[in-house]
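Progress note, sequence design subtask.
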């Protein structure tokens, strides 16, 4: 990126006139004179330290969006560590700024500039600059490694006739559903390698004709500290009952506190299997009402089963309306929680019944938070459960894919009937420790190094 281009971007910088920008006192025009000064600390990384030559390759990222989801979590954890390891980042280009994950934006903006091509959600975030499509060409010319990540749409405006030969190009999407397979096939017009988040994703891509030697498995990084909570189950539940937006059927605190909570947390959209979850929980409630022979204290918990739904997204309004139609009386609706630890502390089990997953991250997160999880056999789940410690079996319940709701209800009952609600055993903590090693930053960085080599 030449000095003139940097000067033009600097004039658009939303931080330029703030005290946080050490260049602000000199004025924009003086930056062309001082651009070689290594002490100049530009908040967008356009000047000063970015001039320093690194022995590691220079990277640029092209991303569909960074809404709250797997790709957002991946970038929020991996990019800072690549930066610490000496990989220089020229910038991150977003296809759109719809439903931005503000936590991820704040983290990434401290490392490199963020740009948006299609400004579809009002004014961009202060740390995201709205720029013309030519930024693709400028970033590519400055980068040695290009990452295409997430749901990169087919109409991504890559400049006509642009040569991608000079860069090592990676593409990343889970490739499980038809949409993401289409995304990868489109990206592979430019890419030379594929990053898969699990062995299952790699196997699926090989079945669809991609070469095994082009696919590298780099698991997501999960910070166990984010999943540690010192609330009691009762206190955590009170927090969510206070935030419950399902006001039509208000649950009494004492009624909901002493019952089973089955939980979904994530993006609220039909392809995430949220309707199947609601139907299965309704069937589970009926099954528990008909069950006999449990001790009195346990029967009381199984007679009061609630579904906690924590999430958001562009389809949240219509999704929650359908959830209310399926199972209105005992559904607790809450917006995104900044602390998954609170969700896990309040829950007796988390549920995942989605086909549209490369992870799914909710399963290892639940195990690392010592909360039981039940999931379809998808993504990373088989290698997570069956290739490691047997203690996982106590925290994880495999569900029959696309089974009838009554079948799923019996599977959930068998998993929960022998657990004491709210209790975490020593084997639960051993499973959490083993899981945290599997999704450690050390393993991810080693996998990245192998892919680059």
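Output:
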């Amino acid at each position: 990126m030449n000095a003139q281009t940097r000067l033009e971007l600097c004039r658009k910088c939303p931080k330029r006139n703030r005290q946080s920008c050490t260049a602000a006192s000199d004025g924009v025009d003086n930056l062309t004179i001082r651009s070689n000064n290594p002490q100049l600390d530009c908040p967008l990384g356009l000047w000063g330290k970015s001039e320093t030559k690194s022995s590691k390759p220079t990277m640029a990222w092209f991303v569909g969006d960074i809404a709250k989801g797997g790709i957002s979590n991946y970038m929020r954890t991996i990019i800072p560590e690549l930066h610490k390891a000496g990989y220089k980042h020229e910038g991150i280009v977003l296809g759109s700024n719809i439903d931005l994950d503000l936590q991820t934006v704040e983290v990434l903006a401290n490392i490199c500039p963020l740009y948006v091509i299609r400004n579809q959600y009002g004014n961009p975030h202060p740390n995201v600059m709205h720029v013309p499509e030519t930024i693709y060409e400028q970033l590519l010319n400055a980068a040695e490694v290009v990452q295409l990540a997430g749901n990169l749409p087919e109409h991504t405006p890559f400049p006509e006739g642009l040569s991608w030969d000079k860069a090592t190009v990676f593409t990343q999407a889970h490739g499980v559903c038809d949409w993401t397979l289409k995304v990868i096939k489109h990206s592979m017009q430019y890419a030379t390698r594929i990053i898969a988040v699990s062995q299952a994703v790699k196997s699926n891509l090989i079945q669809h004709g991609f070469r095994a030697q082009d696919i590298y498995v780099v698991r997501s990084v999960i910070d166990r500290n984010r999943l540690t909570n010192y609330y009691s189950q009762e206190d955590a539940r009170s927090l969510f009952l206070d935030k419950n937006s399902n006001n039509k059927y208000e649950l009494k605190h004492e009624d909901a506190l002493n019952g089973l909570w089955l939980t979904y947390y994530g993006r609220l959209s039909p392809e995430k299997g949220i309707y199947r979850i609601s139907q299965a929980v309704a069937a589970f409630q009926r099954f528990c009402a008909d069950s006999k022979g449990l001790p009195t204290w346990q029967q009381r918990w199984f007679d009061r089963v609630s579904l906690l739904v924590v999430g958001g997204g562009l389809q949240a309004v219509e999704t929650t309306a359908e959830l209310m139609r399926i199972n209105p009386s005992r559904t607790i609706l809450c917006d995104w929680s900044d602390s998954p630890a609170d969700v896990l502390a309040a829950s007796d089990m988390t549920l995942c019944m989605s086909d549209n997953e490369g992870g799914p991250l909710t399963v290892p997160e639940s195990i690392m938070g010592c909360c039981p999880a039940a999931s379809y056999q998808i993504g990373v789940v088989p290698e997570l459960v069956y290739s490691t410690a047997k203690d996982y079996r106590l925290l994880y319940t495999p569900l029959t894919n696309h089974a009838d709701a009554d079948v799923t209800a019996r599977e959930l009952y068998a998993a929960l009937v022998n657990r004491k609600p709210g209790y975490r055993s020593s084997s639960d903590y051993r499973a959490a420790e083993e899981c945290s090693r599997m999704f450690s930053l050390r393993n991810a960085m080693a996998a990245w190094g192998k892919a680059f080599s």
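The radius of gyration is 24 Å. Work on this subtask will continue into the next period as scheduled.
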